Amino acid sequence: MNLVTQKLSFLDRYLITIWIFAVMAFGIGLGSFIPVVEGLINSFQVGSANYPIAIGLILMMYPPVAKVRYEDLPDVFRDKKIFAIAFLMNWIIAPAFMFILAITFVSDQPEYMAGLVLIGIAPCIAMVIVLNDIAKGSAEYAAGLVTFNAIVQVLCFSVYAYLFLTVLPPYFGLAGSNINITISEIATTVLIATTVLIYCGIPCVAGMLTRFCMLKFVSKDWYYAQFVPRIGKITLIALLCTIVVMFSLKDKLILQLPEDVFTIAVPLLVYFG
Questions:
Q1: Per residue in 258-273, pLDDT tens?
Q2: Are 109 and 117 in contact (CB under 8 A)?
Q3: Cβ-based neighbours of 87, under 8 Å, separated by 6 or more
Q4: Is the separation of the CB atoms in 150 and 196 below 8 Å?
Q5: Which residues contact 2 (CB under 8 A, 6 or more apart)?
Q6: How is residue 45 annotated by DSSP?
């Protein structure tokens, strides 16, 4: 662990403990003191898609996937043990654990309970790739596992949402606050889940094309020693800018409902911790 932290840059080492909280505060302050910012950002929104956030997510993922050695992926997908563990952790333990946290902390607030449950069954792909990259994890295993989880998420999201939002709450005495939704209605969210493929697919294709094209003109040693570290800075810049945008859009709600923010923050900290 000390070896890893010694290799991290100052920005990487304090990303979670300082910089993310700092830009969250900056985003809230930006939205509060310069109200025109919210209107400007929303002017780039079409439907549920906010282009500044979408661009930020894509740029976050591009450098890590550009360093993947795609010729090694067949070996990754042959490692059935790691995929079995990933399925157990992400699709058995994690949703159940988040459901327990939701009914423990916000059982009397069905909207918040539903939000926590949905986070438990729809993990953020971009952050998985970014944090794996910062931790110096295997880019190939990250790419393989993210692809696997994205496919499972698209195929099983509606079933999991129906199970944890409609079927299970009555067994815990929450029939009164149960969200009345049918599996046919929630299946329409699969269309929304396909955006996962877009946000994952665009940076992956861009990364593959970058590596494929550049290796025609440069050596692998130069590509990984010179080019990859240079574009790596894009990830953290895009991450921090995306957080600023997101929190500048929600500054009013955060400031108006500080107790609610704390209520939601506690189970999230427990879950991700």
A1: 888 888 888 888 888 7
A2: no
A3: 148, 152
A4: yes
A5: none
A6: E
Residues with Cβ within 8 Å of 106's Cβ and at least 6 positions away in sequence, in order, are 112, 113, 116, 263, 264, 267
Cβ-based neighbour number of residue 129 at 10 Å: 27
Type of residue numbered 200: C
Residues 6+ away with beta carbon under 8 Å from 6: none
Tokens of 143: 């790419």
Q: Supply the pTM of this predicted model.
A: 0.79
Tens digits of per-residue pLDDT, 57-92? 889 889 999 999 988 999 999 999 999 999 999 999
Q: Which helix (H) or strand (E) holds 49?
A: strand 49-50
**H-type alpha helices, the chain:** 2-7, 10-13, 20-33, 36-42, 51-66, 73-77, 80-88, 94-105, 110-121, 125-134, 139-162, 183-186, 189-214, 220-222, 228-249, 251-256, 258-272
